[in-house]
Amino acid sequence: MSSGRRIVICGGGAIGAAIAYFTSRRGARSTVIERHAVAGAASGKSGGFLALDWCRGSPLDRLARRSFELHAELSAELGDPWGYRRLTTYGGYAAEDDTARAAGGRPWLADGVAITSRLGSPETTALVEPRAFTTGMMHAAQAHGAVLRHGMVVDLLRSPSGAVCGVALADGEIVEGDAVRELGYKGHSLVFETGGIIPAEALFLEYHEASGELLTPELFPRADGTTWVCAISTIGPLPLDPNDVAADEGAHARLEALCRNISPALAAAPIKARQACFRPVTEDGLPLIGAVPGIDRAYVATGHNVWGMLNAPATGEAMSELIMDGAARHVDLAPFAPGRLPPFDPARLRGPSRARVPSGNQSIRYTD
Q1: Which of the chain's ends, N or C, has fewer CB atoms near its CB within 10 Å?
Q2: Rounded CA gap, 331 and 316, in Å?
Q3: CA-to-CA distance for 148 and 125, rounded, in angstroms?
Q4: Pseudo-torsion of CA 272, 274, 277, 283, nearest 10°?
């Protein structure tokens, strides 16, 4: 494929930024159309957790392994503006009303938190700050000639043969090129200012509230001195503007109480951000990556659920290969073919269960 191909990418999240980087690096004239802000939705508010082999046994395994490898390469090549950090990752349990000292705890956790297993090592688990990763990839793409435009895409333009030849924006402007389209499930999170108190140790817990409800908090200490925590996800209507996403009543207070209970370090730390965002989820839990059926020169890359930040680099690489060479080389995209699912029917909308994959004797949740 000769350089100079015009590519329009609809969406400035982690996937869109990665596609822009990998295509522009190969000489394509890539334009990203973002209606709000780069990393303005889930790509700026997720946990940023990366795992080498937590998708083993699933169709995502090769995509995840390739992407984990690319995260390390990109961090080294681009100067690590997003705080790439290798982690030791633990699993355990706690109860709201349990004050007895548990065995195997970590110094930064309360006595009642029991560590039951090591789920990952610095060779298999890592972390990035998601907003910095997404904006950093976009800046790297721009350094290779990519263009970022603010606007709302309202239609695909077709040539007389029916092939996509560009997009129309709400202000009437036409942007020519091939269209790569990056299209809910709401999660709540807190970001604490913890400084260097918490070491490079991620934590996945099963936490029993006094009411009897089981929550599954995830804690990720970042290289920038903040710690991200989530535990509560709900289903709700998806607003058009990410700025209109509102937290469920009481969700952040409930999450804060949990954090103060399990860790003296979190109990003493100020809260930097209270966040809520929707993540894109497909009916079968697998992303949509590939050519749009029945529309020549139109492609889609979306629906990565809780593994979006992990799989962004390999998705960007695969899409650049598919668009510019006709086929992806590093990853088999067949399991993610957009045509595998029926057309969207709002009447069938439902929330997916939180997927689990086996990891030794432990069931590990897919993470944001």
Answers
A1: N
A2: 11
A3: 32
A4: 110
What sign results for the dihedral spanned by CA atoms 278, 280, 281, 285? Answer: negative
* CB within 8 Å of 80: residues ≥ 6 apart: none
- How far is residue 245 from each of residues 105, 168, 217, measured CA to CA in Å? 36, 26, 21
In this prediction, residue 156 carries a pLDDT of 78
CA-to-CA distance for 71 and 63, rounded, in angstroms?
Answer: 12
How far is 53 from 74, CA to CA, in rounded Å?
Answer: 19
Structure tokens at 253: 């207070």
Strand partners, 160: none
pLDDT score of 368? 39
Position 170 scores a pLDDT of: 83
Q: Which two tokens stand for residue 316?
A: 């960007």
In which residue ranges of the chain is pLDDT below 50? 1-2, 182-183, 349-368
Burial of 106 (0-12, 13-18, 19+ CB in 10 A): middle
Name the token pair of 109: 């956790």
CA distances from 26 to 31, 155, 221, 306, 354 (A): 14, 27, 35, 29, 37
Q: How far apart are CA 195 and CA 197, in angstroms?
A: 6
pLDDT of 184 reads: 63
pTM of the model: 0.89
DSSP-assigned beta bridge partners for residue 356: 365
